[in-house]
Amino acid sequence: MSKDIKISDNWFLDKDSKYRWICHRVKKCLLSTKTTFQKVEIFDLYNLGRVVVLDDKIQSAEADEFIYHEAIVHPAMITHPSPETILILGGGEGATLREVNKHPTVKKIVMVDIDEEFVRLCKKHLKKWHGGSFSDKRVELIFSDAMEYIKRTLSKFDVIIADLSDPVEEGPAQFLYTKEFYSSIKKTLMPNGIFVTHATEAYYTQNKSISIEIFKKFSDVFPISDFYYEYVPSFGTLWSFIIGSLTYSPAKLSSVIIGNRLKKRGLNNLSYYDQETHKRLFSIPKCIGNYL
Question: What is the pLDDT of residue 3?
C-alpha cells in the first residue's frame, strides 16, 4: 500500500484465496451481521459502489453485477424457444430473478433460497439489484435447502438456474456441485429443459481447476453440456458457467436465431448480453477446451 494511507483508513480485504487478497477502500459500511447460515456485510466502496459480501468474499457489486447476472440467465433462456416455467436456486440478491422476469414467455418462477433473513436484507439494501422483482405476480418465493426442494418437488421446469454459493470445502454448498445433485436436477427438468449453473473461477493455465472438475461431473449427467466464461471485474478473475440439456446446445445456436428471439422478447436493450456476446462466450480457447 502507498505510504500516504493512514492506519485509520477503512479497508475491506476480499480474501480471494490463500495466495491473493484484494484490498478495497470502504466509503461506508451499511451493515455487518450474521444470519443462521452466513456472515453478511454490505459496503459502499469507492471503486465498485455498493457490494454484498458473504463470509468475507464479494458476491456481487453494483458496478458490474449485470455482467454476472445477464451471463447466468440469458444464454439459457434464449436457447430455450419458449421458457415458461423457471426454477431459481439461490440468487438471494434478486438480480437473477430480475433478469428472468424480463422474458415475456415466462408464466411461473419458483425461487428457492435457504436464507430468509439474507433475502430480507437484500430487499431493503439492494434495490438496484432486484428492481422490485420479488413483487412480480409470477414469482413464488420458497425458503428451503435447494437439495431438499429438488428431492421433494413434483414440478417440472423448462429452465433451472443455480445461482448458489461456491463449493467451498466442508461448506454446505459443496453437495450442490455433485453428480448426484445434477442427476436430481435432470429429473426435475422438462424433456426439452435446460439447466445452468455458475462453476467458480476459470483458469487459462491449470487443467485441474474446480470449474473443469465440475464440468466433468456435469457432462456425465447431461449429454449436451457447454462451458462458457466471462471476466467479472469485482471478482478479479474469469468466472465460468455450464449449461446442460437433453435437447438444446447454446453453442450451436445461430446469431440470427438469437437476434430474432431477443427482438421478439423485447430484450434488445440489455446492458451486456446480445447475439455477438453469446457467440463470444462459447468460443473456448484451446488451453481450456483441451480439458473439457
Answer: 46
Say whether domain 11-59 belongs to CATH 1.10.10.10.
no
The strand pairing partners of 232, in sequence order, are 237
Total residue length of the chain: 292
Specify the CATH number for 65-289; select among 3.40.50.150, 3.90.580.10, 3.40.50.10610, 3.40.640.10.
Answer: 3.40.50.150
What CA–CA distance (Å, rounded) separates 73 from 95? 10
Domain positions in the chain are 11-59, 65-289
Our CA angle for 32, 35, 39, nearest 5°, is 50
The catalytic residue positions are 163
pTM for the predicted model, two decimal places: 0.94
288: which 3 cell numbers?
481450456
**Residue 103: is it exposed, middle or buried by C-beta count within 10 angstroms (0-12/13-18/19+)?**
buried
Average pLDDT over residues 143-164: 96
Mean per-residue pLDDT of the chain: 93
**Distance (Å, rounded) from C-alpha 188 to C-alpha 159?**
10
Within a 13 Å sphere around the CA of 133, how many CA atoms are in the beta-carbon half? 27
Q: Which residues contact 190 (CB under 8 A, 6 or more apart)?
A: 85, 156, 157, 158
Q: Which residues contact residue 193 at a Cβ distance below 8 angstroms, ignoring those fewer than 6 apart?
A: 80, 156, 157, 158, 159, 160, 245, 246, 247
